[in-house]
Amino acid sequence: MPRLRLPLVLLLPVALTILLLLPSPPRLLPPPPLPCGAALSDAVEGRWVPTPSPAPPPLYSPSCPFHRNAWNCLRNGRPQLAALSWAPTRCGGAVVPRVDAAGFLAAARGRRVGFVGDSLSENLVVALLCALRSADDGARKWKRRGAWRGGYFPRGDVLIAYHRAVLLAKYTWHPVDNLEEVRKDGIKGSYRVDVDIPADDWVNITKFYDVLIFNTGHWWDTYKFPKETPLVFYKGGKLMEPPLGIHDGLKVVLRSMASYIEREVPRKTLKLWRTQSPRHFYGGEWDHNGSCVSDRLLEEHELDSWFDPRFGGVNKDARTVNSAIQEALAGTDIQLLNLTYMSEFRADAHPSIWLGKKDAVAVYGQDCMHWCLPGVPDTWVDILVAHILHYFNHGKG
Ligand SMILES: *[C@@H]1O[C@H](CO)[C@@H](O)[C@H](O)[C@H]1NC(C)=O
Ligand SMILES: *[C@@H]1O[C@H](CO)[C@@H](O)[C@H](O)[C@H]1NC(C)=O
Ligand SMILES: *[C@@H]1O[C@H](CO)[C@@H](O)[C@H](O)[C@H]1NC(C)=O
What we know:
Blueprint: H1 8-21, E1 46-50, E2 84-88, H2 101-107, E3 112-117, H3 119-133, E4 140-141, E5 149-153, E6 158-164, E7 169-175, H4 179-185, E8 189-198, H5 200-203, E9 211-214, E10 231-235, E11 238-239, H6 246-264, E12 270-274, H7 303-307, H8 317-329, E13 335-337, H9 340-344, H10 360-364, H11 376-394
Parallel strand pairs: 3-6, 3-9, 8-10, 9-12, 12-13
Antiparallel strand pairs: 1-2, 4-5, 5-6, 7-8, 10-11
Helix pairs in contact: 3-11, 6-8
The protein binds 2-acetamido-2-deoxy-beta-D-glucopyranose (3 copies).
């Protein structure tokens, strides 16, 4: 057979035609858009608006069995808070929808969600437990593996639990054993913090949960640990030298707990860290008649004067602690759930004087730190749950 020797240039149009006729390579589909509220950034860009009517019925009442008396403002006589919803800028006027409890229990079948931290995490957990119970009357209290509070939801075989670890790191009380010494310098003893050892309450649960949400911050203050009973920091079993102040101690603990989490929590577990919840004491600290008997939200332009540490106000700790958190988590795979900004507006939503105990205000002052339930933590729940659902449905979970 004569060999056909076509010049290359003649082949070119043929090749091109073939290329054009070939099915085009599969184009990468854009990821599905995140529902309103499911992006972590939805918490940090937006504003509070009146809940569009018809407002959805409340998911839980003051008789929710998971409720905690001190946050049960309605039962304690506080008039209902204004019905407000968070409208993230991204959502074009829509508000974060209330969690679909039945939908969550179905989508989260067999999963466990764990919270580790102080009472502000507990505040969030109570809101979540009460919301989910609206879809499962068979919900039961669950308190094992070191959990302080929790719920099991048979309808979806879902577990939600809170491990109380106010400093995250292990800390133990060591009284001065010589009374003479106490009289000399007034120090009654110290709390030894092992910066590299997690508290017993959660040290062994790192592989138990599918989602873990951490926080600490509200105890890192001299009103919890005054100079008569200070925190003293140990690393590798040895006293740290030079001795650390409380804020530097916080920084070291944050870094070492973040690295423990990275080491011990499986890669596929969703890891979140919630930022500080702002307090709203007006006119003084909690022990100096600070008050939050108010129906008024703060305006955007007021936020810095209330919270920016530069102005030295009584509520500056949230942003101060947040800077330390941000620094410690940079470069880790722990995502920040930034609830601070949206909460800064809500001076109207703390238990204040409605604490449910006769002498509570006289003894402890007003509570301008935790939140009434129903209230602001419901919106935290809506954003958190939307994010977790998206992770279960589309992520590695
Ligand atoms: C939280 O969001 C606010 C508002 O965008 C921002 O100013 C602040 O720096 C954020 N904090 C952290 C710790 O990311
Ligand atoms: C955690 O687990 C280790 C290893 O099994 C065990 O030695 C330790 O006692 C446990 N700690 C707690 C507080 O449960
Ligand atoms: C708080 O207010 C009461 C009543 O006005 C007053 O007697 C008391 O001294 C105040 N306490 C502080 C710490 O300012």
